[in-house]
Amino acid sequence: MTTTTQTAQTAQTAQQPGYAPEHPARQPFPELHPAFYKAMVGLEIAAAKNIDPTLYELVKLRASQINNCAFCLDMHTKDALAAGESAQRIIQLSAWRESRHFYTEREAAALALTEAVTVLTDGFVPDEVYAEAAAHFEDTELAHLIGAIVTINAWNRIAVTTRMVPGHYTPTASKR
Question: Any idea of the CA torsion for 116, 118, 123, 125, to the nearest 10 degrees?
């Protein structure tokens, strides 16, 4: 479990001699567009409802890996660890297809859907990916999963564009 002291030490590590300097954020987005930020927080609250917390963190981490969002990777790794997720499953997540035995079939279907929604290079989510997710989730659950995937992708785009700085986030006891 991550403590406040460990989080502070992690943030300080980037400032120690020999490490690259911490980059500045491009802008304080929440302060400059508070109405949009408030709407995003509302979207996050809605997205978190009726979805398994462990699965929710795995989805957020996988999308953030694909989108190279360091801020969200920092945040959701800490949240996942604080919620009891194993370090091994987090470490293996970027190669989940090669280490499927760490994940349930339901989680694997959700991760495949996360990848398909996050990377729309073909312009659509393949039918077989959607069908596999639909086989593991009831219609309402699947709608909530899609909402979670869309929401983390929106957060990733905000954080990457504004260069939000990773390393300073401390998880709260409970976000729900």
Answer: 30
Give the CA count within 13 Å in the CB-facing half-sphere of 91. Answer: 3
pTM for the whole structure: 0.87
Q: What angle do CA 160, 99, 66 make, to 5 degrees?
A: 15
Residue-level pLDDT, tens digit, the chain, 176 residues: 333 444 444 455 556 789 999 999 999 999 999 999 999 999 999 999 999 999 999 999 999 999 999 999 999 999 999 999 999 999 999 999 999 999 999 999 999 999 999 999 878 999 999 999 999 999 999 999 999 999 999 999 999 999 999 999 999 865 54
CA 62 to centroid of chain Cα atoms: 6
